[in-house]
Task: structure prediction
Amino acid sequence: MSAINVLVVEDEDAIREMLSLVLEQAEFAVRAVSDAHQALAVLNESVPDLILLDWMLPGLSGVEWARRLKKDKQYGEIPIIMITARGEEEDKIKGLDVGADDYVTKPFSPRELIARIKAVLRRSNKLGKSGRIEVGGIVLDVDEHRVSISNHDVDLSPTEYRLLEFFLTHPGKVYSRSHLLDQVWGRSSFIEERTVDVHIRRLRKILAEYDREELIQTVRGFGYRFSEQT
Result:
């Protein structure tokens, strides 16, 4: 299965190293930084599947950074789990109110943490069941990095595969070209938005061979949507 990317933002060295070790042992890909400024630099390179965020950070606090992220259209859908020593109910409510998807109180067991991460990833459709995703008769096997339709293997380029994988895991929503660039190519890539249109046309042409091209819909003035509903 393709590695799930987790960004850890924790200022205490020992805890940051422990979190990295626990996540790597659970076969997650990990980037670990000590403050919100460094975390933003990581986001500018690539968008993680989930953020583990400490409440108390130097400079900009974790809870305030979470609030800003959730209001940002580029990052608002990234699941966030707050990690903190604050265990009072009002603190938990505050963390959830700013948009955090879950809340883990120190000290916690590694098993609890991994279970909570997987639960949040399942809710956000970022953790496919048994590495298999199926929408509209299109089957994507994450483990084997293979796509099939009606039991026929579909030959895709790496970019076409990533684009289709994003659509299959985010059906029904409209995404702008800039958002697709960020999610599929990465924010660090210097690619024009019309490149998205080129790859959309290529992917539609491939899907047309199996009468599935209508699943990728153009929403005039906004972008694209992948949906079985016409």
In short: The first helix runs from residue 13 to 25. Residues 129-226 form a domain with the Arc Repressor Mutant, subunit A fold (CATH 1.10.10.10). The chain has a mean pLDDT of 85. The chain is about 40% helix and 20% strand.
